[in-house]
Design goal:
It is a single chain. The chain is of the alpha+beta class and 331 residues long. The protein has 4 domains: 3-70, Arc Repressor Mutant, subunit A (Orthogonal Bundle); 84-134; 147-233, Roll (SH3 type barrels); 247-325, Alpha-Beta Plaits (2-Layer Sandwich), CATH 3.30.70. It is built from 12 helices and 11 strands. It has a 5-stranded antiparallel beta sheet, covered by helices on one side. It is elongated.
Length: 331
Amino acid sequence: MNPRAQLSRPPLERMLRIHDELRRGSLVNCTRLVKALEVCRKTIVRDIAFMRDRLNLPIDYNAQIQAYRYTHPVNSFPTVQVTEGELLALLVARRALEQYRGTPFHRQLEIAFEKLAGGLRDKISFSPADELRAVSFKNMGLGKADLTAFNALSGAVLKLHEVEFDYRKPGSAAPERRRVRPYHVANRENLWYLIAHDLERNALRTYALPRITTVTVTKQHFEKPDDFTPEKFFANALGVLGGDGNFTVVIRFKSDAADLIREREWHESQEMRELRGGGLELTLRLGALAEIERWVLGWGASAEVVKPAALRDKIRATAALLAATYKADSA
């Protein structure tokens, strides 16, 4: 096999290089391109023909200067072809980026969108500012994450290096030093989390990134277990916190809340049963009860836990504390 053919650039990369040369008005002919792209003359001729005939780029050969040129300005290479429906989806995706503002991925997603949209401007005229007024997103309580800590942790996940950091648990006055093997970084319920094996506790733990400080990436390499996947880890969690338990949770919702429950996918295990009078019974299978307790309390008197008994008792105790907190003043 010809060594030059093995090292030649992919067709799209070659065409983008040719497009860039044409757009800048450089002297573009087969002799120069063969040398620059390290391919044969036949390949160059085929690439230019494809650009002209299939991509409808205005390429013309000027015999006087023995070079190719664009007959009129071309701002972008038409690498993306979309339908009207796909264009709408792209516009909605652009609006959806706003929910990630302030997170480490916002700028990268924004750049990716601009690259996609750039390939459409010669084919479709649209103004995102005008089109997107009909679509909006709003998430309450967007989480904050320190970009330096995020980059260090995500890099350690990719390179499989152990890390050390200070971590302050909710309600604690001072942080504790942790050494972990980072497996995965996840965004759950608008907050960034690190899933890692805690070496001191010899167990998987979930760490909220806003509570992590003073990150140190060590040179100690580790091997991630083959059976770890984020899907498996979060399978029995309502949101973030899973567990080793196996709880069947049954909650009954009154009619005023039932429609809101029907409208969403709350958990992969969910089962719904219609009740008389417009009510609804929701069944979930979870590994822990802490998150479901807070979720049920958020529905107030419109939700009633049927089982397990431990969760029903905990809700009852919390309700008593709430009643005491909000009791009428004696004065």
